[in-house]
Amino acid sequence: MNILKKTICPNDFLQTGFNKKKAFNVFQPVRTPWQAALQNVGKIQCLGKKEWPQINEICAWMLSAETATFMKSGGLGMVASELPENFNGTFGHQNHRISIVTPLYLGNTGKKSAFLDGNVYHGAENRTTEISKIATLKVPFCNRHNTLTNYATDIYKGSFGGVEYIFIANNRFFSINPHARNPSTQDGCYVLNEHNINEVERFAFFSKAVYLLLIECIAGRIKGIPCPNILISNDWHSGALAGLCKYDTIARACQNLLEEDSADKLQNIPIIHIAHHLGYQGWDFANTARILNSLYENRALPVFKNAKAVKNANPRATNTLIVHDCYNQAAAGLHLADRIITVSKNYMEEVSKELGFGFDFRDILKIRKNHRTFFGIVNGYDKRLISPNPKKIEHINAYFQDFKFKVYDENSPDKKLSNKKECIRLLSRLAVSEEYKQKVIPLIDIYRFDDIAKLADKAEKIPFVCATSRLVEQKGYDIAAQAIIQVIKDNKSSKREMPIFVLGGAGDIEQYKLLQKLKNDVKEILPKAAERIFVFRGYRDEFAYALQLAADFYLMPSRFEPCGLTQMEAMAKGSLPIAMSTGGLVDTISDHENGFRTEVFFTNGVRVYGSNIKAQKLKNNINAYADTLYKALKCFYTTPNVLRIMTANAMKKDFSWTVPNGSVYKYYKLFKTGNL
Questions:
Q1: Residues in contact with 202: Cβ distance below 8 Å, sequence separation at least 6, in sequence order
Q2: What is d(CA 654, CA 117) in angstroms, rounded to the nearest whole number?
Q3: How far apart are CA 117 and CA 104, in angstroms?
Q4: 413 bridge partner residues
Q5: Whether pLDDT at 6 is above 60
Q6: pLDDT at residue 584, rounded to an integer
Q7: Bridge-partner residues for 120, per DSSP?
Q8: Which residue in 220, 342, 389, 633 has a CA-CA distance of 20 to 30 Å to 462?
Q9: Given this model, what pLDDT does residue 26 score?
Q10: Mean pLDDT of 231-245
Q11: 138 forms bridges with which residues in the sheet?
């Protein structure tokens, strides 16, 4: 690492509020080798100018804020658990493996709880593992007074599902006991916690702790865990690690804080950054200086002044550590990782073409795609876990007690019809019995459920439509609501049975109010149709599973959907997705073959999918989605044989990680060659 030593001032902190001043983002003139080294990193990484190392036995660490095993919020956590489990199961006999590095969360949010009982860790997803402490690190990080403080951070080891877990434990940062000011929409690992630590600061600390753990492992001072030769950064939460590995190693070597041999090893470990939702990036304007000082300590100013991005057309993305004037945790990962992966091929195209998808990183991602440092790999999903299986359905029946849901497959549609009848009775039981509701779905709010038990006898003639995604703007519940109103208005005088709609999930209270308004508005249009609209807020796996067992259709009117997992869950249960033609929904749903997709799709008023003729006719996403919803319902009413074939096709579709040429093999090739 041919750089000059002792050329960095030992007190080069960024001043608080530096990002509020004009013309603060000016790069230093290159006068020394270390400045040149720093300023060239962004270009080298984005253009793929560094040779991919030869890796004989893959030993990867997957860094993730979430895991489906111990702390899950969405699909990000599913990938964090399932990719390592399937990779190890497929390639473990060749001594290839992925370990998971994740925080050890402790506390109780009211909906999620995690605790230690002796040496047994009880995670927030009702799974346990025996853990052992292997080290304690001192992690320097700024406190609320902007003073660097050494926080004792314990490192534990455990295992689950054939995967080794490395837990990072510090109660200040990883407590999930909520602060009194915690927003109602924030739960699990995203709470503003009792120590006033928000999600951005929490995961910046996580990256710093992992970085220091890497230094100790490379130096041979920690035994019992493997030293990785690949790092997998699972979305923005660990984005800061790329900046630490690529920049701070140079700066530490300059200060004689790190041997050049160790710095070279650390800087040359390939980092693969998995980008999920580009809309989530980890912004924190107020704490920009404090977080950068926490990460880089007294090297923050020279690192920042030399953190030059590859030349691109966006004046807001010239520095790899911030966007415009704001700390952005995704930025370092997207600029500085050796490879970027996003979770479907179509989403890769969207984010590298459209500002509405790629935001400030569109130009960077376009450059990366053109230089083959950016790829799309569709998320896998273990079909055994999501298909209607005896063990799961036995649990469902035991949980709801007086109901008999049946196991079925593509060859037994009559049993799925039986499940539709059972679900109609379940919804009606929830409507009439508050005691039963509190027993089976106590944390779910329901809005004016109606007793429709009498409809069970004619269930074959009634379309059953559900959606159980998170209640956030991205999922497009407002689009679905307006499309439903259009369809009901257009079919007000029809003699056909109106559909049953069951819509809801965990999330934003405003989105829930929007669904309540849907029911009220439909009541004004057609009271009988409103009785068949069920809206709720909250999540219970058994309830969502039962709805998909019953549903003919599953709504996915997403504004963007990098990959999507719920459409895979629904298809496995024969619930045909009615989806926007965006992101991974294009890659996983074949229109009129195993689901329905809109003929056009718009973002920010711009057509990004479909023909111009169709775009001129449909004009916007609401019309496009209403048109697709209408086609799906028409297929149900008029061509049931076609619908039956589509349902069978959907259930046969296998998105499992390990199918021939499945996602786990693509990751293996990427790990080995840096290419696909």
A1: 103, 173, 174, 189, 193
A2: 39
A3: 13
A4: none
A5: no
A6: 96
A7: 117, 130
A8: 389
A9: 84
A10: 98
A11: 152
Measured CA to CA, the distance from residue 585 to residue 563 in angstroms comes to 6
CA-closest candidate to residue 267, choices 100, 34, 12: 34
| Range scoring the smallest mean pLDDT among 233-237, 279-283, 380-384 | 380-384
Q: What are phi and psi of 661, to 5 degrees?
A: 65, 25
Q: What is the pLDDT averaged over residues 384-406?
A: 94
Q: Across residues 648-675, what is the average pLDDT?
A: 96
**DSSP secondary structure of 379-430:** PP--HHHHS--HHHHHHHHHHHSS-------TT-HHHHHHHHHHHHHHHHHH
User: Alpha helices, DSSP H only, in 297-412?
Assistant: 300-304, 329-336, 345-351, 355-358, 362-370, 383-386, 390-400
Q: In 10 A of CB 95, how many CB atoms?
A: 10
Please report the pLDDT score of residue 1 as a whole number: 55
Distance CA 375, CA 675 (A): 8
pLDDT at 4 over 80: no
Whole-angstrom Cα distance, residue 446 to residue 536? 4
**Pick from 148, 198, 147, 146: nearest CA to 172:** 198
- Beta-carbon contacts of 440 under 8 Å, excluding residues fewer than 6 positions away, are 399, 400, 430, 540, 542, 543
Q: Which residues lie across from 577 on neighbouring strands? A: 554
For residues 481 and 514, the answer to whether their CB atoms sit within 8 Å is yes
How far is the C-alpha of 208 from the C-alpha of 243, rounded, in Å? 10
Q: What is the pLDDT of residues 88-128, one digit of tens each?
A: 999 999 999 999 999 999 999 998 999 999 999 999 999 99
